[in-house]
């Protein structure tokens, strides 16, 4: 079974971002974007997203949407981005795709992790 994982670090607080809602969507020519998995980051800011079946992820475009506005609002922190969306391409259906997010109230960055 293949997986898409993420890890969110709140660089402004110097700790993992726990309890962030994340949605994984896949793009199809027929239906556009559709949700295939969702979850909340754990206490270490990590989340493993898998499809509801044991099938491999298909080649194509995916995106992760992070509910950053709610995360910062819970802490009473003003932020600029209510949501962060990261789109990426799956080229090897059997591969592991790790998409980390470095987050602060007024900025973010991401990269292809391992």
Write structural notes for this entry.
With 114 residues, the chain is mainly beta. The chain has one domain: Transthyretin/hydroxyisourate hydrolase domain (Immunoglobulin-like). 6% of the residues lie in helices and 49% in strands. The protein has one helix at residues 68-74; strands at 3-10, 15-16, 21-28, 32-40, 46-49, 60-66, 84-90, 96-98, 101-104, 107-110. The strands form two sheets. Strands 1, 2, 5, 8, 9 and 10 form a six-stranded mixed β-sheet that branches. β3 and β4 (32-40) form a beta hairpin. It is globular. The protein starts with a strand and ends with a strand.
Keywords:
114 residues; mainly beta; Immunoglobulin-like; 6% helix; six-stranded mixed beta sheet; 10 strands; globular; 1 helix
**What gyration radius follows from the Cα positions, in whole Å?**
14 Å
Assess the beta-strand content as a share of residues: over 45%
Instruction: Give the tally of β-strands.
Output: 10
What is the arithmetic mean of pLDDT?
A: 92
Specify the helix fraction band. under 10%
Order of helices and strands: EEEEEEHEEEE
Structural class by secondary-structure content: mainly beta
Rounded to the nearest angstrom, the distance between the terminal CA atoms is 17 Å
Low-confidence stretches: none
CATH architecture: Sandwich
Question: Would you identify the CATH H-level superfamily?
Answer: Transthyretin/hydroxyisourate hydrolase domain
The total tally of domains equals 1
Oligomer: single chain
CATH first level:
Mainly Beta
The largest sheet is: 6 strands, mixed
CATH topology value: Immunoglobulin-like
Choose one word for the global shape.
globular
Tally of contiguous helical segments:
1
